[in-house]
Amino acid sequence: MKNNQNSLAIFENFKIRRHYDEKTEIWYFSVIDIIAALTEQTDFKKAKSYWTTLKSRLKSERSEVVTKCDQLKMLSQDGKMRETDVADVETILRLIQSVKDHKKLKGLKTQNLRDHMSEEELIFTALAELSTRRIAETEKTEGLKKNKIPAKKGGKIAKDARIALEQKTGQNIVTNENFLPLNKSKKRLR
C-alpha cells in the first residue's frame, strides 16, 4: 500500500495503531491493539497470544473474517517497524462480534475472557497456540498469508484433541462456567 499515513488512536487509555491508505481511502487498524483494548489486556504478549488463539479458532470454524485481515509494517513497542495483522473497520467489527459471542457464552460484559476460562479451556487454547507456532517454525513460514496453513493445522490439532477428550469423558470442554466470580464485592470505607 503506497501513499499512506501511520498514526495512533486512543481508546480508553489503549493506543491503537492505525494506517490510512490514501489510494483506497481506507483506515486499517492493528488487530492486536484492538484485542488488547477490548479485553483490557495491558500485556502486549498476552493480547498477541489471545489473537493467535482467536485466529486459529476462527480458521478452524472456516470463518472468512481472518482471511480479510492483512499485514502492514507498523511501529512496534521496541521502536522498530514490524509486520502486524491489520483490518479495516468492517472486518474489525466482525472480529469484535466473535470475541463478543464467546464472552456472551460466559455471561461476561467487560471482563477479560481469558481470566474466566476454565483450566481445560486454557490448556486447549495453549495447545492451539503452541501447535501453530511449532508448525510455522518447522515450515519456516512468516506473515499472515503464509501462516494460514500452520494456523489451520495447529487449530485442528487442538480441536481433534478436545473432541477426543469430550468423547471419552462425555463432558464439554468449552462451557458457560467461569473461573473467576462475575461480581467482585467492593469494600467500602466508613
Provide a quick synopsis of the model.
The chain has about 190 residues and is α+β, with helices and mostly antiparallel strands.
Written overview of the protein:
The chain has 190 residues and is α+β, with helices and mostly antiparallel strands. The protein has one domain (4-169). Helices cover 45% and strands 18% of the residues. The protein contains five helices and five strands, in the order βββααββααα. It has a five-stranded antiparallel sheet. A hairpin with a 5-residue loop joins strand 4 and strand 5 (81-87). The longest helix is centred in the C-terminal third of the chain and has 22 residues, at 148-169. The mean pLDDT is 77.
Which properties best describe this structure?
alpha+beta; 45% helix
Low-confidence stretches: none
Look at the helices and sheets and give the structural class.
Answer: alpha+beta
Question: How many β strands by DSSP?
Answer: 5
The biggest sheet, with number of strands, parallel, antiparallel or mixed sense and barrel status, is: 5 strands, antiparallel
- Ends distance: 59 Å
Strand content: 15-25%
Fraction in helix: 40-55%
Order of helices and strands: EEEHHEEHHH
Shape: globular
- Rounded mean pLDDT is 77
Helix tally equals 5
- How many domains make up the 3D coordinates? 1
Write the layout of secondary structure elements.
Blueprint: E1 4-11, E2 14-21, E3 26-30, H1 31-39, H2 44-60, E4 70-75, E5 81-87, H3 89-106, H4 119-138, H5 148-169
Antiparallel strand pairs: 1-2, 2-3, 3-5, 4-5
Helix pairs in contact: 1-2, 2-4, 2-5, 4-5
